[in-house]
Amino acid sequence: MSAVANPATVAECLRVGAGFSQGDRNWIAEQFATLDARLAGFHADATELEVSVKDREARGQKVTLECWIAGRQKIVTTSAEEDLHAALNDVRDDLRRKLNDAKTRQEPRHNKHLRDVPPPQSELDLADDQEQLPAADPSRADAETV
């Protein structure tokens, strides 16, 4: 991956949505700091993260983390964990997994290094043996081969 002049970081790209206050932002950014290494391959000005929670601290709370990266499809992860800390970790880990999957899908399927491997020795020996055999004499051809 080529070096990015202004790499994306969670602290720079994170917005807090419904259910969170700006005071929660720093705490959440700390929880998501492990995403920085994965986001570093993208430009900060082309990357956005938004985390929101529905029915915070209630039995049916739902945490949602959305990620927009220019030129890619939006990635959405959700968690219904009852503990807010666990739910944030869940959506963070799921986003990391989805980013890795998206990267794998965009990489070439064929590995050039595998194509550069020489064929096994037995195949080379057969090729050498065939080159050393004398050419077939057309006057000696059987009737079936003509």
What does this structure look like?
There is one protein chain. The chain has helices spanning 10-13, 22-31, 36-39, 84-106, 112-115, 121-132, and strands spanning 14-16, 47-54, 62-69, 75-79. By secondary structure, it is of the alpha+beta class. The mean pLDDT is 79. Strand 3 and strand 4 (75-79) form a beta hairpin. The chain contains six helices and four strands; from the N terminus they run αβααβββααα. 39% of the residues lie in helices and 16% in strands. Strands 1-2-3-4 form a four-stranded mixed sheet.
Characterize the overall form: elongated
**Uncertain stretches of 5 or more adjacent residues:** none
What's the arrangement of strands in the largest beta sheet? Answer: 1-2-3-4
- Total E-strand runs: 4
Record the SSE blueprint.
Elements: H1 10-13, E1 14-16, H2 22-31, H3 36-39, E2 47-54, E3 62-69, E4 75-79, H4 84-106, H5 112-115, H6 121-132
Parallel strand pairs: 1-2
Antiparallel strand pairs: 2-3, 3-4
In short:
This protein has 146 residues and is of the alpha+beta class. It contains 6 helices and 4 strands, in the order αβααβββααα.
